[in-house]
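Table S5 (text form). Sequence records supplied for joint modeling of the two-component complex.
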Amino acid sequence: MRAELEAAVGRVLTNPGALALLRADFDGFSSAYELDRDERERLGAMRDELATLHRSFTMKRRRALRSSFPYSDALLGDRIDVVLGRYIDHFPPCDDISHDLDRFGDFLVDVLESWREPRLTVDVARAEDLRGRASRAIISGERIGAPEEPGSEIEPSPSAVLALRDGVFLGRFEHDMRNLGMLATSALDELPVVPSFHVVFRRRGSDNAQIWRLGPATFRLLRALDGSTPRGEIEARYDAGDARLAPLIAEGAVEILRRR
Amino acid sequence: MTLVGAGYRAELREVFADGVVDVAELILDRYGDFGGYRRPWDLQRVLGRLPVVLHGLSANVGSVVGPRADYIEVVAERVRRLGALAYSDHLAMTRTATHGLGHLAPNLYDGTLLARAAEHVERLAAALAPLDCPLVLENLAYDAQLAGSVWTAEEFTLRLLDATPSWSLLLDVTNVWVNGTNFGFDPREFVDAVPVDRIRLVHLAGPEKFGARWVDTHSVAVRDETFDLLEHTLSRPGVAPLAIVVERDRNFAGADAEVRGDVERVRGILGRVAARRAGARSRRAPPASLPA
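The corresponding structure-token record, covering 552 residues in total, follows.
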């Protein structure tokens, strides 16, 4: 089947293990696909070209993933190639790059914890993961198109934007991560060592995600909320608690819908 | 009149200031809920005053599997929502039956693929027809061509143009130049073989050289050789694309000025070609009155 031949080609283009198997054990690799004799011969004939294309495909994917975790890249040095290699071998690309980045963030943190890396390394990876997720958060109210009525306000109102807001994340760290985005990659050891509770979000109209530090009581309160918590209840409970987020919630710039 | 534009990127603020470009190209796959575009408010202002062409990354026309039905629905919905002047994608394989590839891949170019690709084109064109939006597909830049192909990518493109009239070409002149330089053919031969009335859109971008190979990186200013190929293309009688779009996706420091410069060079070429055509017409025109 020609679609099976494409599946085999696609697997080799995106998966280092598949390329290695194609080279080392062609019969074993090709037997996993329903190929007729002609298709099997064609697959065998294109091995060199597939290797060339594989390098290009995986290099682009590595670059996209790596550039989204610049601090982890700096801390890990060459070892991030090991993580990337394992990840790319385990997971095919997603149709949506955002999903690939989210999944890689989870994978990176899991690997670093399994390696028993220093807490700084793990904290930085987790914070980069959350920052990335918050930056990529889709704000469903921010539909963009030509204005429906001439002269109407193009920018959506705060309430329209925030009624459906997603992408606010909570994280508990052993470092104060607030200045992460402002540090040079060579200065990560300047992050203060102090148990910290943070909320990570992108404020409406802002380019970049922000990391705010919370008091323990606020953190506990936020963790207790979920997507079904009515907005008015969130505001009421917030006003009664610690308070740095209260003004943002009151103006509708932050709504807690999801946590991690 | 040919519109001159650029691929929309939030980083290119000066390019999308008033009066610099005539049209914005949006990546259809990022457009959905705008999670992929930074500063969506800026984009919204751009959309309020510029026409749009939509450029997709996932139609998968260059495979036997073809586009997913839900993707075709998304294309039609976004074309309708934005009133796009045209929708383009790539003559590439972007996913298999089971998963996405993440990038644009060449395929085995033979009669089987040609027949299936023509069917995919007809499906996409049928979805766009009620919206009065043309289907346009881009020639690919490739690092290798698969052994066992009956035709080159360029020959396949020409055969698909011949096989169905339901699409037009997005002629990426940089891709043609990169492929020609890397694989040793004259890019003008391909450009000259495309029927003039099928060139609907044009792309330009800056490539970089890695080792012995040029790669279409979209990361630097457009090269002189690419502008020369553009001028050659536009000089063919009958070539009148809807839009010429400069692409820039990386190395944004200083990119505003470079892209503006590229846009101005495109306008200069359009002006020179128009002047040459006008001159040729005036030389051919009969005298206003016959001598007595």
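Note: The two ends of chain B are 40 Å apart (CA to CA).
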